[in-house]
């Protein structure tokens, strides 16, 4: 009895024990297997990168063993080449060389550079529809986003351009839905609009002096990380006063790194602050933002320790408690929506 002759419920149960690579290849064998793989709803994350001419698409499934990778980097002689294959997806086909690494159960499908458009279009769409990843991350320049991913929905967009005009960023964000995290570590030129989509990102990580205090006053997201800014102690004071008066209703965390020296003594006398009270909140803040990936782990231990060098402030309008810390060039701000997480 062939496996596809079993009831679909039985097939789905057996598929749960296969690796993500096995599930992918099996889905190509017949419509029945495609539907069965799609039905089991595997928890998965998809990353697509195009950096320095190399292209990579990586699918990771925590609930299934191993990961599946497509890339344009050709295998070395020491790599174990399993087979050369032609993958057929609908009416399209793509040639690959498959290698397998035992250490991390990774199957890599090496493609030719001329097939990059198929990888970005055909393969991406196939995997997206088959596994329905909960988290899609794009790491690339805006020209590649514009070329391949218009009208898509992703969780993270990491803009790899060294310099880009803000109008172009706005245009991309009007065509691509970014549900969670926007990263722009290059220089952004131009002026942000009042209703800029950049200000409405749930998680925003930018770098450079182009991000001004006036623009931060318009930020409406949950988490922000601003690197290498020119913020001053006065700017920090204006931010804290705005928050105390009801601004930033969605804000949970804010981290600012400035090229200027910041002085706590010029901020704290103007606010009613309190030291940490263990009966009011936990000592360590639970930093849930995806931007945790961009903070040094050892540094993070200090950042989230709000025990003895932080200042607590309470907003009278809603009783919300927040802690801020100021070092010589860093400002940390955490809102305690859950005081004992």
From TrEMBL:
Pfam families assigned: FBA_2
Residues in F-box domain copies: 1-48
Domain of life, per lineage: Eukaryota
UniProt xrefs under PANTHER family: F-BOX ASSOCIATED DOMAIN-CONTAINING PROTEIN-RELATED, F-BOX-CONTAINING HYPOTHETICAL PROTEIN C.ELEGANS
Name of the protein this chain belongs to: F-box domain-containing protein
